Amino acid sequence: MKPVDAHLDEILAAVRPIDPAELDLDDVLGAVLAENVTSPVALPPFDNSAMDGYAVRAADVEKATEERPVLLPVAADVPAGEQAPRVVEPGSVTRVMTGAPLPEGADAVVPVEWTDGGTVRVAIHRPPALGNAIRRSGEDVRAGDVVLTAGTLIGPAQLGILAGVGRRTVRARPRPRVLVLSTGAELVDPGLPLGPGQIWESNSFMLVASVRQAGGEAVRRSAVGDDPAAFLETLTGLLGDADAVITSGGISMGAYEPVKEALTPLGTVRFEKVAMQPGMPQGFGAVGTRNTPIFTLPGNPVSSFVSFVLFVRPALDRMRGLPAGPPRTVTATTTEALRSPDGRRSYLRGVLNGAEVAPVRGQGSHRLAALAGADALIVVPERVTEVPAGTAVEVIPL
Ligand SMILES: Nc1nc2c(c(=O)[nH]1)N[C@H]1C(S)=C(S)[C@@H](COP(=O)(O)OP(=O)(O)OC[C@H]3O[C@@H](n4cnc5c(N)ncnc54)[C@H](O)[C@@H]3O)O[C@H]1N2
Ligand code: MOO
């Protein structure tokens, strides 16, 4: 059987980062920057007030106390968005709002809470320190500074600074578009009634969610029947400009294996057994004129889920231009004894609790409810068949 690591290596060697494109800011959440972004201006662009209050010359109000407030005329009023009067003359103040430009000569802002809030004259009853509540031009970013580097994953905060430096579009690798197809004549869409021998289709929902969580966009097509020709037609029809395809089911040793039967003659998808439990039957290759990578995952729901974590997720990372490799593991102590088949690496579902991990009840690869109660995969190496309680094990947090 093929080792897990060899299968992942083969996949990572075959998939390439998606070409960058000029993307609108509204479409870049989850994309990965393909340029260094510099700021054309300083941020803040001008000295401005950090509080609603009064721009003053600190020396004018240094003697202010609760008992003896200093009374000064309000010479001007500057809301945010207005240009400041050129200068605040000694012995007067300018009323300012948060974000308003500071008038020349002002060296402190007195928050309105330290005053009587006057608009013609103001009584200030507490002296500000020099520079109080002033945000200096360029203290966040200087003009020409690189604010984000190529390879950065764009999240909400990164979107904030892109907009903050005035960018409407950026060059970035878009999120991979993934077509998700599930196969099986026994499958019925949730929401519809079940007939005899039928079950509700769950893999396509789980895999679409996995794709989205992994930073991709997904298109779902559930319950393609068990006819290889119909499967191939559906695949070809939906392939379009997808960056990757995931299928579930139809790849093992049964009499009706539409995915395997449809794709094997193409010669571009390899079906093999990978030394793991669950998820032993695997297929990977390329389809269509654009050599779109295809992952044919086993139909058992837990097998599909684990295969995504081990193989598809790293591949999507590579396609996004992010560092890609096996899932991150932590070490924990198992609270119970574990069993694993000889020659296969097990990924047992478990619950991680600090430095301890407990396997969930029900390790069968059809046990969706048990999977839903887990938040980690406990890794048992190929040659290990029994792990006593209290042993340190590697764990993949989910
Ligand atoms: N004789 C053998 N039988 C099986 C072997 C084997 O080596 N020899 N391998 C077993 C293993 S391991 C797995 S995993 C499965 C993989 O089978 P397929 O990928 O062909 O999947 P199916 O046969 O279509 O389905 C398996 C199982 O999962 C249920 N299923 C499938 N798709 C969905 C879905 N979208 N939503 C919910 N449930 C789904 C399906 O009803 C079956 O119960 O093969 C073993 N057999
Ligand atoms: O390898 Mo299968 O994936 O056990 O259920």
UniProtKB/TrEMBL annotation:
Pfam families named among the record's database cross-references: MoCF_biosynth (PF00994), MoeA_C (PF03454), MoeA_N (PF03453)
GO MF annotation: an example: metal ion binding
Keyword terms of this UniProt record: Magnesium, Metal-binding, Molybdenum, Molybdenum cofactor biosynthesis, Transferase
The keyword Hydrolase is assigned to this record: no
Gene Ontology CC: one annotated term: cytosol
Top enzyme class: transferase
SMART domains in alphabetical order: MoCF_biosynth (SM00852)
Catalytic reaction equation(s): adenylyl-molybdopterin + molybdate = Mo-molybdopterin + AMP + H(+)
GO biological process: Mo-molybdopterin cofactor biosynthetic process
EC number: 2.10.1.1
Co-factor requirement: Mg(2+)
Family matches, as CDD domains: MoeA
Pathway: Cofactor biosynthesis; molybdopterin biosynthesis
Tagged with keyword Magnesium: yes
Ranges for domain MoaB/Mog: 179-318
Family, similarity comment: Belongs to the MoeA family.
Function: Catalyzes the insertion of molybdate into adenylated molybdopterin with the concomitant release of AMP.
Protein name in UniProt: Molybdopterin molybdenumtransferase
